[in-house]
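Action item from last meeting closed. Structure (294 res):
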């Protein structure tokens, strides 16, 4: 109940004059419960009142100021973490700084930075973010798994951080359908002045957007001196430590040339044990590389 009361206050701050019916639908409780909540808020000293007739509804006094004493220390910490996450995603403005100053009583205990080390990667991220907020069409070259590039015109709808990578969900005008784009494969990104009205459908997410992806299951033997990569890049249930100090890793990733590049990034520290087809493909690539340096 306390959580709902707090949410009602924020809802009234954002939308003064809502009806009990609207609040009832919003919080999925009866109107009688809403009226009891309003009475409880009033008894707690919150200046909330109901106005009858045309233009009526439930209001807070216009000069009402939220008192942080209403929040527990844990709730303030959670709000601070949310604000820092927004800042890490590039959403910085004076309001966030004011809210942070309002809630901050102790030294910040977490620092969040989702961006990579590449300056170009950060520029792409901020361009996409600005286009989403301004509802501007993006134009960019997109490199597929095969390495081929294609110029795309996309209505950007959502940024998603998933499995250590940033993605953009948008409506691709080239394909006339929703598509997911990995930011690291988006090059020469331009934010146009053309605007769009399309909103993100409720059923569209990064997991439901159309994509047919074949997965590749494989087993690697990784040298013990590369333990830092094993622990950074694989889940504990995928890893088995061997008596000689090496690691047996069983993984399943989306198929593509990138998988071979990833495995080869381990150099002589990783060996594909199975499947035989992948082992053969890696062997061919290693022989090809050796031929280049003869």
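Sequence:
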């Amino acid at each position: 109940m306390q959580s709902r009361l707090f949410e009602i206050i924020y809802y009234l701050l954002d939308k003064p004059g809502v009806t009990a019916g609207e609040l009832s639908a919003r919080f999925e409780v009866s109107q009688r419960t809403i009226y009891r909540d309003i009475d409880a808020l009033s008894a707690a000293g919150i200046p909330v009142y109901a106005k009858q007739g045309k233009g009526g509804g439930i209001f807070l006094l216009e000069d009402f100021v939220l008192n942080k004493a209403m929040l527990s220390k844990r709730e303030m910490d959670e709000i601070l973490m949310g604000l820092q996450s927004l800042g890490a995603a590039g959403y910085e403005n004076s309001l966030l700084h004011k809210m942070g100053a309002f809630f901050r009583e102790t030294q910040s205990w977490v620092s969040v930075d989702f961006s990579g080390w590449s300056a170009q990667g950060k520029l792409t991220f901020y361009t996409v973010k600005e286009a989403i907020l301004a509802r501007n069409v993006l134009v960019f070259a997109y490199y597929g798994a095969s390495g081929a590039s294609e110029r795309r015109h996309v209505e950007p709808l959502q940024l998603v951080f998933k499995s250590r990578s940033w993605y953009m969900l948008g409506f691709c005008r080239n394909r006339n359908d929703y598509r997911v784009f990995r930011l690291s494969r988006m090059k020469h990104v331009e934010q146009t002045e053309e605007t769009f009205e399309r909103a993100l459908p409720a059923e569209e997410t990064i997991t439901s957007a159309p994509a047919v992806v074949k997965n590749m299951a494989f087993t690697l033997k990784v040298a013990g001196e590369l333990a830092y990569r094993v622990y950074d890049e694989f889940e504990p249930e995928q890893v088995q430590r061997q008596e000689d100090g090496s690691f047996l890793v069983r993984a399943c990733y989306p198929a593509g040339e990138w998988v071979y590049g990833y495995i080869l990034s381990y150099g002589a520290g990783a060996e594909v044990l199975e499947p035989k087809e992948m082992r053969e493909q890696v062997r061919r690539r290693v022989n090809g590389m050796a031929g280049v340096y003869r």
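Note appended to the action item: Residues 208-212 have pLDDT under 50 and may be disordered.
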